[in-house]
Amino acid sequence: MPTPAAPVTVTYYLEILSSWCHWAEPAWAELKTRYAGQVDFRWKIAAMNPADFPVSVAQNEWFYQRSGTVTGSPYKLHPGWVEPECGGHYPAPNLVAEAARDLLTNPESDRVRLALAHAALREGLRIGSDFALAAAIAAKAAKLDLKRLRKASTSAAVKARVAASTAEFHAHQINQRPAFVVTSSIGDKAVFSGLARVEPLAATIDAMLADVRRYASFAAHFGAPPRN
User: Fold this and answer.
1) The sheet that has 179-184: what strands, in order across it?
2) What's the CA gap between 165 and 163, in Å, rounded?
3) I need a surface site. Which of 2, 19, 23, 149 has the fewest CB within 10 A?
4) Domains and their CATH numbers in the chain
């Protein structure tokens, strides 16, 4: 039998190489654990523009010092993945992560994208323009067929999906990642852009779940609305 649709859906828009998405991952993991079975959790790529990326390793280090202290992190991210000669064009991680969906049992699994983010942001590996390296990291992390993944990562279909999800992100009239869009089965919607903490998201989910339950209670007592 098909699984009933969850009353609340949370869609997480991310860029693999975004440090702020990295800082948001603990909140994402906590929400998935706290609301398992109650909420449908999805992630989508929202690729950054070339001008959004640091222009040098030194500039990236400054950004990491800022975000690391703002979040109170006990470690500093590695700035070495930046390739100034690429001019901010780093398509490989996003496309490889998207391509892996077609090979995973659970397309919403975080394993591949977290492995790619770790390789760049924690180890400083230059995977932004290196499809071979990015695919190798992803294939190892999720035990995927490397040749199939590498081929799919540069396919027109995968590029189109990333372009579509990025356009969807911008359609919400936001520009900061991470972004979270929370919707409910009764039509409520909340958009968070740039927040990396669990508290506002959890409060919103709790409110939406409560409202859905109240609508269900009303329907049980009074049924459908009159037609006239």
Assistant:
1) 39-45, 8-14, 179-184, 189-193
2) 6
3) 2
4) 8-222 (3.40.30.10)
